[in-house]
Amino acid sequence: MKQPLTLADLKPGCKAKILRIQGNSPFKKRLLEMGLVRGEVIEKLKLAPLADPAEYVIKNYHVSLRREEAADIILEEQV
Amino acid sequence: MADCDPEKSKVPIDKAAAFGIKTITVALMGNPNSGKTTIFNNLTGAHQHVGNYGGVTVETKEGTLRHGSWRIKVVDLPGTYSLTAYSMEEIVARNFIIQQKPDVIVDIADGANLERNLYLAVQLKELGVPMVLVLNMADEMKTKGLHADIKKLSKIIGAPVVPAIGVRNRGTDKIVARIIEVAQGDWSQSEKVPVHYGSEIENELTKIAEPIIRRADQLQQTGSDCNCPLCLVTNPQWVALKLLENDSEVIGKMHDSAIRREVDQQVEHSRKYLTSIYGEDPESVIAEQRYGYVHGICRTVIRRTTEARINFSDKFDKVLTNRLLGLPIFAALMYLTFWFVFAAGQYPMGWIETAQQVLAEQVSNLWPSGSDSVLRSLIVDGIITGVGGVIVFLPNIMLLFLALSLLEDTGYMARAAFIMDRLMKWVGLHGKSFIPMLTGFGCSVPAILATRILDNRRDRFTTILVLPLMSCGARVPIYLLIIPAFFTSARSASVVMYSMYLIGIVIAIVCARLLRSTMFRGESSPFVMELPPYRIPTLKAVLIHMWQRSWLYLRKAGTVILAFSVLMWFLASHPRLPQEQIEQLRQEKIVALEQQGNFPSSEAAAIELTNQELQDARLSYSITGRLGRTLEPLLKPLGFDWRIGTALVGSFPAKELFVSQMGIVFSLGQVETEESPDRALQSDQNQNQDQDQPGTSSAVSSTQADLSVSPQAALRTRLKQTYSPLVGFCIMLFCLISAPCMATVAVTKRETNSWRWPMFQFFGLTGLAYLITLVVYQMGSFIQTGI
After folding, report:
1. Which of B116, B283, B321 is opposite residue A35, by nearest beta carbon?
2. How many structural domains does chain B have?
3. Which chain A residues contact residue B309 at CB under 8 A?
4. Mutation choice for A interface testing from B119, B122, B284 by most A CBs within 10 A
5. Architecture of A15-78 per CATH?
6. What is the pLDDT of residue B59?
7. Which of B51, B163, B184, B501 is most buried, judged by most C-beta within 10 A?
8. Does residue B161 share a domain with residue B100?
């Protein structure tokens, strides 16, 4: 089976729709309440100077996520 | 009666109430970066104070304002994204609302980022609290081409909506007016839970709520003083929703009862059922539905008049967090900050020193010259020297806090965490740890409070434990005293100063890595952090921010340090040297001189002890001197004598006391700057080590001390005469690493909720300081003598 596309794989400057968040940590709740819910379009803006974390735009605001956390966010196809 | 809340009527009959003044409590809520604090400042002006709520340690600010016959108490709660309790701050904010039941909640929403901000507003409505919604940053909305239909929004939300521009103090009056209207019940706030989660979820919610409602009815009859959510919350649907969302705070707080077991069973069953039909856990579905609802609101009330262009913030950010330029810009900004603090601080420091001198002189002149008044000594040597020595550094500390406020309020602090996260992760910490670390350069106490932004206990405790290694503002006085005394060239002075900061950081990194791989092993917490748009902070906000922090320092100088200055002065001057002892010392001196064959014994009667000798004898006879001497064998391997030992003990209440302590120790045996070669006249008692020789100059009594030289400069002269530069360096090193101050110990205890960690921190760091200073001093001496 093909590996699902995650936010970590997204190239800077690209956008995609969120499908779901893996795992079951309290952190998942934080992501949900910050608006990373299914169907939302998220854009990877750029990487930090040391390549991690990355800056994303969702719901018109900016948020930073580490690569390992972004890897838990499964995306639909790129838009 | 103004109100019939039993909580409030406990207060003795208010004088204000007699004049028909009604008091209401208002809580400010809102997302982080929504401009909540600015609105709070607008509402309350200078009438505010920082406090803690009900035993919990999260800072809440409180202020009051008067409006007609109303007295409004405003509480600024920590910023939160939702009512789902994830971090400590969110728990505190939520518990405040549930337990204290403020009369009105003002939700500050960033209008330019409405969708995420409304998420909280909708949750507040679900909880069913009386609310005023403020759409802040109306100006930013305009530049973004967003237009909100306030009336429509107000109707949907079921609460008054006020547009405002916090930074320009627009809309404040309207907010106050709406608060009073809501408090008076002029706004019928709809009771209905606004979000519909779909019939499946709603069905399950009803099932979960049923036993809770039953219990609430029971309680109506029997009454209960239980504090758990089952009994306390008047809104059973809300409790049911939180339980379905798997909210561990609510679950953990419920007291055990038959009802709870029943509820638990139902929740478990419902969660399983919903997960099976949605293929997702209920919290995801609920968040999705709630956001769907919020999105719907935004679509109805927001009109986009122009297409959003690339704004100023984005352009700015492209440079500041640029992959190539980001780090150098960051380093340069940090350097600039510290340069600014110390360069600009010099001038007011000079003024304060002069004022202190003049004051000491004036007070001294109240007594006849040469008098041996205890009161004079207490005021001049104890209080003025002690407190003055600390106040002198107020400009530096205020400037540092000013710089930190600026970094925070412009939004750069979050970028700094963004840039530094990779490095901090390598250390074993979190990018957000960087913010308390940076604050730690100001003062460990607010820095330890700032660790609350860390969600993970391991990250948080590690940060707290190594925080005192950040060279705080109270260490600065020590450096500023010692560096000019021993390292006179401007270059070597700045190198030494810089190295102290660097050494602290390096040791902190090593310790943090060690802690993270031993006691606090485990995954680091996730790094999700909002990067707010860059904003130009208002002068008022920055000044209030700076003032609140500086005030803590000033208050410390006024209370703790004043008390300890007096105590330390007492310990350094009592018990007083009895006359027989003086006579005995004189005899010893005569014998010593005779043995050297320096003069015929017929002149013995004319020999007197020099003032220097007298003062030294007095000091070593005092409690302080004895304590210092007891410690001396332990401290000698570090190159410290009993005076430094005494000052180190004395600096436990606050690090900067080391300076005043040295000042007191040396001013009791103060020197004139002119030296006269009196080497031969040294009493046996003081002939220990070469560093131990108390001055080679003749001395005058402190009453006649040469006050035309600044006290700091006089102290430095003495230090230079007494110690080697290596000892000077070792003093700074030891002060940097060793025992955090009393306030730090206290706040660590409070924040970690156990004595274990502050004790570990205290003894661990002091032991480490001893070890490192020992190695440095011994190696330093070896190299010096070896060459």
Report:
1. B116
2. 2
3. none
4. B284
5. Roll (2.30)
6. 62
7. B163
8. yes
